[in-house]
Amino acid sequence: MENQTLLKVLRIVGILEAVSWGALLIAMYYKRMLGEPKFMQATGMTHGMLFVTFTLLVIFAGASANWSKKEITLGIISAVLPFGTLWADAKIFKKYVK
Fold first, then answer.
1. Smallest Cα–Cα separation from 18: which of 72, 79, 95?
2. pTM
3. pLDDT tens track for 4-50
4. Assuming Cys at both sites, which of 1, 5, 20, 71 could form a disulfide with 47, CB separation 3.0 to 4.6 Å?
């Protein structure tokens, strides 16, 4: 896959991962506070798949575009932080878009 295409996919997955994190927070609220667990499985699985996909895309995009180790590491760490993928998009990935 071409570098720019890979970067665009990474940015889209990063936004989706952040949205899924927010949805997971809402699902956890429903489960814990309202006793309604039906949203947890689908939301958790979706978020998990996006998390793994984002992390792999950071590694592949970083390696193919010769990003610094610091940028790749920060990109991976951003997936762990709440809404961190949005920060990574603004501070790291956006500067590589042509």
1. 79
2. 0.89
3. 899 999 999 999 999 999 999 999 998 898 888 888 989 999 999 99
4. 20
